[in-house]
Design a protein that fits this description.
The protein is mainly beta and 471 residues long. The chain has helices at residues 5-18, 309-314, 462-465; strands at residues 47-48, 55-58, 62-68, 83-90, 96-102, 141-148, 155-165, 168-173, 178-183, 200-204, 224-229, 236-240, 248-253, 263-270, 291-298, 324-329, 334-338, 348-353, 360-366, 376-381, 387-391, 398-402, 408-414, 418-419, 426-427, 431-436, 443-447, 453-458. A 9-stranded antiparallel beta sheet has the order 11-12-13-14-15-19-18-17-16, with no helix packed on it.
Length: 471
């Protein structure tokens, strides 16, 4: 279904009415508003405390927990933990395929899909797994696919769709109906692995079982985070979650839609300012709202044997970023986040627009107040045009909305506090993987741990779309 603004308004209003009965069940009959939640504009209104202690939402919104780590899946494996990046696809049969990353390492046996002592591994075609440790322990990262009824969101099937990978953090959907899942690591073959890691893999949304894990080597080997595809050109934009020194990449495929055939990997540079530092740590070199002209430089040594791809190419003129995270393609532009960029090291959001002269980049938002935005991570773009931003900060975690004008509002709060081993202190797990259903009526998102949960949120989204927008 093509999501026009008219279709979105109609569908969102209809599902809000149809699911009004879920409000009490999911804690949305909340009466106590939260105090001290930062926002620059009202958005959907104040958050109300969830009596079930899971997810605080505005009035009129409801949630369902549709998946929790440790549940047995349709393939006999266990739902692995550390949920992360995610996207929703419409299948040919009308069902929703929700493909979800798992940011797991081979040591995390307690959160593995294979169960204690890998007892469930016997039911897996291990030839499709990317890697195992030298002692035979499979790597636990990968993806799961949930096949959902589009009306009830009931899981009809859930299975491991990619396995044997390491720290699958984010990624991105493609226009041709696949999910790009990214390894956020540069672990080399040795004590913990038989093969090098740090690649992007592709998972078809129409897959009904575990697929063979084949690295897309042309997209480089580094601490991959997220990917966003230009539907017109097939170019893939990529972020790198490397501390201090990271690049913003693009992959120009030889054949659009067939990434395994190879192509050119490039890094963004600021025209006339080689090695430009976008981080704004020591000086305000890049002013929020400012646009800079860009160019792209071809990369060499993309298999990155010395794990220095960013440093090598910053020395050759590439722009310097820090901890690139979420990345999503909008209407002719791509947005991406840097978790610890800015003077407060609390987050930046960039916007890039391609043109025939090489393109231009804007510092769209830089956090100057951690109560409004702290450690921006995964992102998506809402049907009404706003950015939806997941936080991954040291304190309470929120889902924020950001308007095209750069103004911030709040959509949700993780209400589930995890006691720490240190006295009365608690922590809140990060939000991950925000994405909308194909018809735009449902916002899916993950809370990563303690335990990992996937939520489906419904509500009067059309209120944002119907507001007048400035040019």
């Amino acid at each position: 279904m093509k999501l026009s603004r008219r279709n979105f308004l109609r569908t969102s209003a209809a599902t809000t009415t149809a699911f009004a009965g879920l409000l009490a069940l999911s804690g949305c009959s909340r009466r106590e508003p939260l105090e001290g939640v930062g926002a620059e504009l009202e958005g959907f209104g104040p958050l109300y405390r969830d009596p079930d202690g899971l997810l605080d939402l505005p009035r009129g919104f409801s949630y369902q927990v549709i998946s929790t780590e440790g549940e047995e899946m349709s393939d006999g494996l266990l739902t692995p933990g550390d949920f992360d990046g995610m996207a929703a696809f419409e299948r040919e049969d009308g069902r929703i395929a929700l493909i979800r990353n798992h940011e797991l390492r081979f040591t995390q046996q307690d959160r593995s899909p294979f169960g204690p002592d890998n007892a469930r591994l016997d039911g897996v075609d291990t030839g499709k797994l990317y890697d195992v440790a030298p002692d035979g322990t499979p790597h636990h990262g990968g993806t799961t696919t949930l096949i959902l009824d589009p009306e009830t969101l009931e899981i009809e099937r859930q299975f491991l769709s990619l396995g044997g990978t390491y720290d699958n953090c984010a990624g991105g959907p493609t226009p041709w109906g696949t999910w790009l899942t990214c390894e956020e690591t540069t672990v080399r073959a040795g004590e913990t692995a038989r093969r090098d890691h740090g690649y992007v893999f592709e998972v078809p949304a129409d897959a009904d079982e575990l697929v063979a894990a084949i690295p897309l080597r042309g997209l480089g080997r580094f601490r991959h985070e997220a990917a966003a595809v230009d539907p017109e050109s097939g170019i893939v934009y990529l972020t790198e979650d490397e501390y201090d020194n990271a690049l913003f990449y693009r992959f120009i495929p030889d054949v659009p839609g067939q990434l395994w055939r190879g192509g050119r990997l490039q890094a963004l540079a600021i025209r006339g300012r080689p090695g430009f530092d976008t981080r704004n740590w020591s000086a305000q070199d890049f002013t929020p709202g400012e646009w800079l002209e860009t160019e792209w430089i071809d990369l060499v040594g993309i298999d990155n044997p010395d794990d220095d791809i960013a440093l090598r190419h910053i020395a050759r003129g590439a722009a310097q970023f820090t901890r690139g995270e979420g990345c999503w393609f909008g209407q002719g532009e791509v947005y991406f986040t840097c978790t610890d960029g800015g003077a407060l090291r609390s987050g930046q959001i960039f916007r890039y627009v391609h043109d025939e002269n090489g393109g231009r980049i804007q510092l769209f938002v830089e956090s100057t107040d951690t109560s409004l935005l702290e450690y921006c991570d995964n992102i998506t773009i809402a049907p009404w045009g706003d950015l939806i931003v997941a936080e991954d900060g040291p304190s309470e975690q929120y889902i924020r909305g950001v308007t095209p004008e750069g103004r911030i509002y709040t959509i949700a709060r993780n209400a589930f506090a995890v006691p720490s081993d240190e006295g009365d202190e608690v922590s809140y797990s990060e939000f991950c993987g925000p994405c909308f259903s194909p018809d735009g009526s449902v916002l899916f998102l993950n809370v990563q741990s303690s335990p990992s949960r996937t939520f489906a949120i419904r509500g009067p989204w059309q209120r944002r779309s119907s507001e007048p927008r400035s040019a």
